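Ticket opened by: R.M.
Priority: normal
Category: complex prediction / small molecule

The reporter submitted a protein together with NAI and asked that the result be attached to this ticket for the collaborator who will pick it up next week. Submitted input follows.
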Amino acid sequence: MVVLQVVVTGGAGQIAYSLIPLIARGLVFGPATRVHLRLLDIPPAAQALEAIVMEIQDSLFPTALEGVLGTTDEVRAFEGAQVAILLGGFPRKPGMERGQLMAKNVGIMKRMGQLLERHASRDCKALVVANPAATNCLVLAANAPSLPRKNFSFLSRLDHERMVGMLLEKANSVLAAGTASHAVRSERLRPADVRGLCIWGNHSDSQVPDASSVEFCLNGNWVPAQTILGDSPWLKLQDANAVAGAGGGDYLSEAVRNRGAVILAARKLSSAMSAANATAAHLGDWLCSPPTGKTVSMGVFSDGNPFGVPEGLVCSFPVQCGDLSGANRGGWNFDSDFRLTEDVSRQLAVSVAELEEEREMAFSILNGGQSTPSEG
Ligand code: NAI
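Result attached by the on-call engineer:
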């Protein structure tokens, strides 16, 4: 029987709290894969970690969980890990600048990279969720140079799922009201009835939520979004620095970019349930699904990308996950059929410039003033 060794950093945090039941029920790595889960956190969270291990025991998860270790010992957590889910870090506090957040977090990622390099399986797959996710991922990989670069990714799937959810909400309300531009009738649309969208760039306000090629599956046929939504300005990509509408409801792109802030303001805590679900979807597609031809947004190294993004950056792209059974578990490719519109290209260049700036800042922090990634 194969047992997958999975380390989750930030194991006592709020995303982990929602993610653990998904893993333990076989909803992330598939029902046929048994998981040994190592939950790592820092000493001040040791008691919380103990309580979470008790709750796991009390939850009587049926089969997927082979064992659980709650620990503050980094080496025990990373020893032989085949999958690393990096949630651990300092979350952004109100009023905190991106640079301050970076200074707090890149040191943690450097350490996590060193642990991967020294203790994890040589084919470990790493998903960075902790912010600033793209630059954290770059720092992580720079400190684990013997692992293949294709094994590193960051989570942009939450932004992708937010856009799917908003598109569905809008399309279903138009269908229910019977006001679609063509006289269309349909059952309620589901997530699988939406395709052709992508989040490009950084996981930040500069991200580019691209709905220019969205299609809905209406009564068994794929049709452009406009068939239901008409030529609505709502679909038009707004500049990231445009003045935001109240609550971000005027444009889809604006609403996607603002969603995290709206949830943070209302809950006084950042998104956790949806972040855990997006993490599960990212890992499931990447590591456990047969190839479906489905295009998803994933933060990956830009090396060899057909979209003109400079090499050596970690950036969100449209990707398709490949055959992931056995030794090839974890393959993915850029979806080179995805076409960039002029607007998307222009805004992606802005987001890429931000990624380059963040890279500069991160390695300068780590190297005490020098900005060469190789020394990170
Ligand atoms: P949280 O604050 O509830 O949990 C973070 C945990 O990390 C805490 O338990 C903390 O003690 C732990 N931690 C700090 N330093 C650590 C270290 N060196 N080693 C191990 N653990 C360490 O935060 P939450 O809500 O679970 O979010 C986790 C991260 O995910 C945050 O950085 C947040 O900004 C980010 N996030 C990213 C999203 C994305 O779409 N990429 C979406 C939502 C959140």
